[in-house]
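Notebook entry, structure prediction.
Reason for the run: the old model in the group folder had no record of what sequence produced it. Starting over properly, with the input documented here first.
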Amino acid sequence: MSQPHFRRDEAVASTDPSHAPATTTPMLVDVDQIVPYDRNPRRSPNDKRDELKAYIRETGFNQVLTITQRPDTDHPELYMIGVGGNTRLRLVQELWHETGDAHFQQVWCQFQPWTGETQTLVAHIQDNDLRGELIFIDRAIAVQELRDMLEAEAGQSLSQRALRDRLAERGYPISRTMIGWYQYTVDTLFPLIPALLQTGMGRPTITKIYDLQKAFGKAWQSLDLGEAEAANNLFEQTLQRHDGEAFDPDRLRRDLEEELSVSADCDMQRASLEFGGALHGRSNTEIETPSDTNRDDTARTAPETGQSAGAPDTHAKQCEGSDSGPPHRNDSAEDSRTARPGTTDSCPIDEEDHAADVPSPAATDASLPRDLKSLRSRAWTLASRIAQGSRLGDIVLPIRDGLGFLVGPVALETQQSWTPDVGRRALCVWWHLATLAEQFARHGRACPYMPDTWRQRRIGDAMRQARDGQQAFSQWQWQQADRDLFADVPPLEPNDLGPMLYQNWAESRWHDWIRLVETYRAIYRTTGDAPWGDDDARR
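New structure, fully documented this time:
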């Protein structure tokens, strides 16, 4: 009844996708002619998926999907979800293939002409916000992706203010402070605690982690323990140990105080006093005189103390404004007059000169974990983020040995969503990651770690052929007749690397790649050039 133009009593033919209409048009479409939106901001699983599928099975699919089509698509025979509905589409497709029931074969849709990459992503974020389905890390990654797209359009990096203004122009208002929190979460926390973030950790808990990180650095300096990079390195290692478990900020604080005690060779009481003083904006001498607290240096606490790490934030709470966000550097003198009292300039949030914030290789190396497990976890996290950001999907598999990960085949539906240029860039990224994973190296040490699902596929054959030396990898890589192989192991065009990748990779993606290579080298150093074990050293 809410869709008066979508009458079910008329037989309306599906519009041919290769001749998509130029205006908004209602139509009846085969479910197999529609693919999900390949930049769907929702990455976390839907905990109501089974319940929703059962409901659709029982009552039928009575909603209208919004679909669209990129003008330069390689697959003009397919439509793509335009605004929301990715999960619902997958469920009705599953029901059609599982049951063969004609009621699930076609769905009513409203076709909308293509409005551009950024506008389409914004529409999907807004739809998820309205449904309350985006957890903090999903929105943070989506905003980072929007930033990459807008910077590519502008041909330059964007300050927080410029990004805020461009997002507002596209109907997605967001404060500069929230942009800073999103950047801190993606750049700093996601490589360290991906599992915790994906459980729904919200801004209040992230604020507490940030305050603990800042306090740890101050206490480190107060105890005269050396360079700030060493403190940051130790904080990251300690935080990383808390991933994959129920997060307790107090337990993290105790662990950090223990690290201070060991590093400074002092008792826990002294370490706790130094840490507490740093956390609450007091020096060691000020601890005894609370009235002398320096208010300008007081660390903020989480403004929403009632929210736990596992409770997703709502968009409304996240966009309250700068009063509930991290301190940030100002873009202009005007901003300095309106900045909130009590903020500092230590939050890793960008300003106009974005490139100035890029760490030097030496500084980045100093912040790397020292233990092998953390290094491999870091490698997998960075590789996963690079793959997802390059439109490859969830193809990176973690392994306990070697370099910490392997790279799998790209899903057909993901490939179908690529434009020619996106596809060529994605394949360059695929080969960069596979090469760094050493899964096709002649030493063949990665073969035992391939999952069972690969063993009967061509990617498994390729890994075994590279190991056994049956034929040089460079030969069968280029055998154009072997189309089955390219379904799993894509061909590489080396001439694409410069113009398609090195010149077009977003700054954040390029920095992730640099960090991944540094992690790769650190794994070799830590293992004595034998990341695959003792046998590797004798080869």
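Summary: The first helix runs from residue 49 to 59.
The old model has been moved to the deprecated folder.
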